[in-house]
Specification:
With 229 residues, this protein is mostly helical. The protein is built from ten helices and no strands. Helix 2 packs parallel to helix 7 and helix 4 packs antiparallel against helix 6.
Length: 229
Amino acid sequence: MMRYHPSILPFLRSSVARHAGIVLTGNLASALLRFAVCMMLASTFTKDDYAYLMIFVAVMDLASAFGDSGLNATMVRFVALHREENCGPIVRQVFSIRITIWAIVAAVALAGAAGFFAIQRIEPDYRWIYSAALVAGLLLSFNGHGMAVMQGRQRFVAFAVLAMSINIVRTVSVGGALKWGVHDPATLYKAFFIVPLAAAPLSAGLIMVTLRGLRRLPAVEASYGELLR
């Protein structure tokens, strides 16, 4: 960032700093909201079903969100240095690394699924939730790719605000259901997954509009190594 603004005060007043602040705040707020709703879901179960699984998913999700915040901050800096260039090629390299890591995590999790089910004595009707949680993690990587190409540009702020709004609605939905006495796991998990799926068309629209705009820019000439410096 300091390469983009040689002194700290001009940088703090810049649009890049505002964008970065909103984006990082939105992403971390979304992670905390997801953590809260997972804890609410875990509170409805006993130790013999999904309570431990939801706690595990919540903690891993929160940890990965904080890790992604570092990547997001790096991408904001990189795109700020190349505002008039299409940074898609570099972003795709970062995305390929992220999706590879998620694939390894998913493979390990699936390998241990049979033993986990045996220990937890989970009813077959609810086992789909475990797979859905893994798929959701992979989809977050694709969302991250869509967000990364927007960093340093106005639409990325819109994407971060959209993600935060989705998690606010999801938290309120699950929390409201619990307050009104709904404790059926299937109903609660449907509320957990349906809200972001309903917002998927809007997210896809933001990504497509941004990618169309990036095609009019010349390809970035920087290397992947510059992103790490």
